[in-house]
Amino acid sequence: MEDEMDMEVEASSSSTTTTSPAIPSTSSFKRFAIKNSIQTNFGDDYVFQIDSSQEKSTLAVSLSTNAIKFYSAVTGQYIGECKGHSAPINQISFSSPSSPNVLQSCSSDGTLRAWDIRTFNQVSQLNAGPQQEVYSFSFGGLSNNLLAAGCKSEVLIWDWRNAKQVACLEESHMDDVTQVHFSPGHRNKLISASVDGLICTFDTEGNINDDDHLESVMNVGTSIGKIGFCGEMNNKLWCLTHIETLSIWDWKDGRNEVNFQDARTLASDSWTLDHVDYFVDCYYSGADDRLWVIGGTNAGSLGYFPVNHKGNAKIGSPEAVLEGGHVGIVRSVLPMSCLYGGHAPNQSIFGWTGGEDGRLCCWLSDESSAVNRSWISNALVMKSPKTIKKNRHHPY
Fold it and tell me: Which ranges does the UniProt record give for the WD repeats (predicted)?
C-alpha cells in the first residue's frame, strides 16, 4: 500500500481558504494529498467504532474482541485498554455528563458500562435485564440527568445519578431499537429509531410513559441503521437504512422532506471509482448548514458526497476522497473537526477511519510532514520506517 493518497476537493471558487480541518467549505478549490501516516493493525479483529474525547485528545476504539483500546488523537500513541463486555460492543461515547475522563459503552451482553480512562477501570454498570441487548444510548433530559438506551423493542431510561430506572417504553417499537438520541437544544426531546422502520419522538418531562409522552411517529418503511441531526436549530433528521437508502425528516412536524431510494446509485454515478457499496455515516457542518453522506466501497475507498436536501434534491460529486488506506469495509469515520468543536490544534490531521480490515488509519493533509509509523495491537511495537517498508504487516 502506498504511503501517499489523493483527496480531491471540488468547489466553486479559486480561494484556498478552508474553514474546517475535516471538510472543505464551498469557498475552497484545492487539491490535497492525504498521507496514511499512522496505521494501527489489529490483525483479524474488526474496528467497530472510533470516538474522541475533546478535552483529553484521546481516541477510543471498540473492537470485535469486545475490548476498547485508547490512543492519542494527535500522535496515535497507544495509551491503554478496557475489558469487561462479554458480547459485541454496539456504541461507545465520551458524552457522559459526569466527567470528561469517563467513556460510556453499551453491548449485546445487556449492559451499559462506564470506564475511567485514567485507570482503565470500570466505574459503573447498568443492566437492561435478562436476555436483553443494548444497541445505543444517549444522555439528556432537562437536567441532563437521564440516560436512555435502545434495546430489544424497548427504550429504557435511567437517572444516571442514582442508577434508578425511571421508564420502560415498550409499546412504541416492535423490533430492535438501533438508535436513541436526545435532541441538541431540546434536551427533553428523545428520538428513537428501530428495525421496525419507525422513528418516534418522546417528551421526557415528568412521569415518562408511552401513552402520555409519545409525541409523533415517522414511518421510514424499512429497517433503520443510523439517524442524526441536521438543519437550523437541529430541527431535521438524516436517516440511513440497512438497505442503504437516505432520507431527511423534519422531526418536529413528522414530515418527510427528501427520500433518496437510489442513494448508492446517485453517489456511484458521481465519481470514477468502484460502485458505492454502503454508507458509513453522515457528517453535518452547522456553521455551513451542509450535509455529507460518507459512502464506501468493499475495497476500502471512501467519499464525502454532498447532500442537497433543499429544492432540487440531489447527491453531488464527492468533495473528499480517501483511497488506499483500507482494504476492506470501513465501519467508522471520525473527522478531526469532531474534536475541539471543529478547531483541531493539529490542523494537518483530516481524520481517522477504522474497519473490518483491522486497520485504524490517520489521514493527513500534504501541509504536514509525513510520519511513518505502525503499530501491531498484540505486541504494541513501534517499527522503524525502514522496517515498515520491507515487512509491512497485512491482516490477510
Answer: 82-125
DSSP code string of 74-116: TT--EEEEEE--SS-EEEEES--SS-TTEEEEEETTSEEEEEE
8-state DSSP, 233: G
Mean pLDDT, residues 250-270? 95
- Residue 35's pLDDT band (cuts 50, 70, 90): very low
pLDDT tens across 184-212, in order? 989 999 999 999 999 999 999 989 999 99
Alpha-carbon distance of 322 to 318, in angstroms, equals: 10
Look up residue 246 and give its amino acid.
L
Q: All 3 cell numbers of residue 56?
A: 483529553
Q: Is residue 268 helix, strand or coil? A: helix
Cell of 339: 474534536
Q: Enumerate residues 6+ apart whose C-beta is below 8 A from 128.
A: 110, 111, 112, 134, 149, 151, 156
pTM: 0.83
**Alpha helices, DSSP H only, in the chain?**
210-213, 263-268, 385-390
Length of the chain in residues, anyone? 396
- Asked whether the beta carbons of 219 and 226 are under 8 A apart, the reply is no
User: What fold does the segment set 4-390 form as a domain?
Assistant: Methylamine Dehydrogenase; Chain H (2.130.10)
